[in-house]
Amino acid sequence: SLYVSEYFSQSAQKLSFYSWYGNAKLFHFHVPEDTVLLRWLLQASRGKGPECTSMEITVHFRHGAPPVINPLGTRFPANATVRPSYNISITLSSAVQNTTFVNVTTPAAGDWFIAAHLPEAAGRIEVKGFSTPCPYMFQADMFVLRLTDMPVLEPGVPMPHTVVSPAKPLHVKVFVPKHASGMRFQLSSCVTSEQRACNVRVLLGSITLPQSFQRSLTCTGSLNCSLALDSPPWEKWLQIMVESLGTANASVSLEMLASFTVCRPGSTSSFLNFISLNQSQAGARPGAAGSAAPAPGEAPRNASGQRSSCLQSQPVVREDLDVVSVRYRLLNGPSVPVNSLSPTLLLLSLNTGMDSGGSLVVNLLLNKTSASPANATVVACVSAASPVLSLNATQNCSTAFSQGYPLSVSTSSGEAMLIVLYPQTDDWFLSLQLLCPRGQGDCSSAEAKVTVFAYLTPCFNDCGPYGQCSLLRRHGYLYAGCSCKAGWGGWSCTDDTKAQTVGAQNLATLLLTLSNLMFLPAIAVAVHRYYLVEASVYTYTMFFSTFYHACDQPGVAVMCIMDYDTLQYCDFLGSVVSIWVTILCMARVKKMLKYVLFVLGTLLIAMSLQLDRRGVWNMMGPCLFALVIMVTAWVHHGAKRRHCYPSSWKRWVFYLLPGITLAFIAISVYAFMETNENYYYTHSIWHVLVACSVAFLLPPRDKHKKPWAWSQKLTCRYQICQNDREELYAVT
Questions:
Q1: Closest CA to 140 of 176, 174, 102
Q2: pLDDT exceeds 50 at position 282
Q3: Secondary structure of 189-202 in the HEC alphabet?
Q4: Which CATH number do you get for residue 116?
Q5: Cβ–Cβ contacts within 10 Å for residue 525, how many?
Q6: What is the mean pLDDT of residues 443-468?
Q7: How far is Cα 39 from Cα 54, in angstroms, rounded to an integer?
Q8: Alpha-carbon torsion angle 523, 529, 530, 535, nearest 10
Q9: Strand duo 415-421 + 80-81: pairing
């Protein structure tokens, strides 16, 4: 046999600490057909700085769809099917780099996914630029070894073969036809080169992760052995590997035979239904209605054919709505008839390669008036690759190489729902059959009607009221995940273990919004001292900070007066400009120069915030530059007056030192103490401290300006107007 090796690589990704599925870095590979060996090369590395410590990286594997993971141990939504993912841990301790190999023999062809992430996030809010996080990098490469001329085992035709040695197993494949209800594999005429009874092991199927249903058959000391399989995967190549368990020098001669039992589906007249569907949508044409109607006597023949067939296939139309959003419509209506003689089958196609990043939802609703006998039960199975055709014999929903998901409805429980998270890329089948209780007599004529709703959605229930459904992308592959808020967690944000109460949400909103009212004293001081431009800036900051935090809340206590992004930008702009104008006001430069710096600095700050809104230098840069201007101006004033500036010790003790202290405490709280849990009160403290520091730091008014005297000014203006009128009257 001719083996060909292939190598696939993807660029490395920077890992993140885990708080939701978007933090996991996804790698998407495609394993070609006839692959006999798959080897993953996993390379993890970290930086060399002192901030880099020992770290454990978790890597998840899955075939057909992204792995469903739960590192935080949260609850999944009700009716969701969850099977633990296959994962390994890679530890980065003293070594800067770690290389790990993972081997998979006879892997299943198709899509394979790898997800890697760091441990749970600490929840601290880090200001960009204050600290340098350690970079942890991860890269996955794939090596495959495949056969270019794998022998094909034809159904019903015996094929002689020889296993040369235990080190060189024999690989063959057989194609499973559509509507195959069973498969029988038989091994005969098995002898060694020493004319002894053979000792071989046969592996049928491919390995899939996280669960593998590969079937094994060991033939020891017998000339013939066989294995029967129910519901093999339809329209797929099935790999068969035969390996010798004998001595190294002995070859094994054998003969293989594969036979299938094919199920004849019942007549559904789907073509006529398709014509009627088009006519109902586009309008019936003259003379077309007669061609779509069944001929006399055709309905009884169809009914008798359905009774004698092994399954009843219902036509289903796949309707693509959006990205990872599909709706399935039944041509015969939402209700399907279900009997006890043969299962009713619905095909849910999810084989485009872009459907595995959402959630498949199947909802069954029993029409209780149609159920006969009254205490009958409709059992259903949702399975991939092949349907379950023996629901009356077994209810565990298992096929030859997979495990399905069971459902049931009855008169006592008339509704059932199933949620399949990240369904694997394949043809999915919904099988339904009526089961009558024992001792109820003949059940062959019984029938029930079940309404079926099936659809694919990016996020189940759109992540609920406390979550946001985000569409994620890895190269050209799209998948969805829920980002939860207000303490809610879980796959669909349904876990309320750590959820905030409505009272706590209202308290957080009130603290973050009303704390901005502490700018009112600063505004009053600025107006009293004739700093009207500064007072306008503080008013702008107070207004937009209040309504930005009212819109930024994660729970139900939310109010947005305009677009969220606009509110955030105006809040950040007002905060930085407030610091800028306050420090320049303290510098006591000439008015013309001060206002030029006000406008020029505001324009530059607006530009820098547009480039990087959360960068620390957007705040620190204007602050440092304004401090340089202030210190230069103070040195100039001190040298000119030949004494320290400001000269009053009361100014230093009662205003400057308290204001500077409050400002340093505010910066420390903002940069080092904020976390996701304490954000609502630590950030409120930041608001209060900054507003109070501004009130302390504003300089006194100029000496030549008198204090506000509204009564005198109003009286003066009235007197001037009175004199003007008298003058005009005298002239005329």
A1: 102
A2: no
A3: EEEECCCCECEEEE
A4: 2.60.120.380
A5: 20
A6: 89
A7: 26
A8: -10
A9: parallel
708/220 Cα distance (integer angstroms): 108
Query: Where in the sequence is the domain holding 11, given as residue range(s)?
Result: 3-147
Of residues 647 and 283, the one with the higher pLDDT is 647
Whether 278 is in a domain gets the answer no
Residue 126 structure tokens: 């880090």
Q: Taking the CB of residue 462, how many other CB atoms lie within 10 A of it?
A: 14
Structure tokens at 668: 């420390």
Tell me: cis bond preceding 32? Omega within 30 of 0 counts. no
Does 614 score more than 90 pLDDT? no
- Find out whether 16 and 161 touch, Cβ atoms under 8 Å: no
Q: In whole angstroms, how far apart are CA 276 and each of 282, 332, 449? A: 10, 10, 22
Q: How far apart are CA 162 and CA 217, in angstroms?
A: 17
Instruction: Say how many C-beta atoms besides its own lie within 10 A of residue 276's C-beta.
Output: 17
- Listed residue (234, 240, 193) closest to 217, CA to CA: 240
- Is a pLDDT exceeding 70 seen at residue 528? yes
256: alpha, beta or left, given left = phi > 0 and alpha = psi -120 to 50?
Answer: beta
On whether both 208 and 143 belong to a single domain, the answer is no
Phi, psi (deg, nearest 5) at residue 338: -130, 130
Q: In this structure, what CATH number is given to the domain that contains residue 619? A: 1.20.1070
For tokens 């991860």, name the residue: 138
Q: Cα(238)–Cα(216) distance, rounded to whole angstroms?
A: 14
Expressed in percent and rounded to 5, the helix, strand and coil fractions of the chain are 30, 35, 35
- Mean pLDDT over 153-158 rounds to 91
Q: Does 482 reside within a domain?
A: no
Which structure tokens are listed for 574?
A: 């007002």
Q: 3-state DSSP call for residue 706?
A: coil
Can you count the helices (H) and strands (E) in the chain?
A: 13, 32
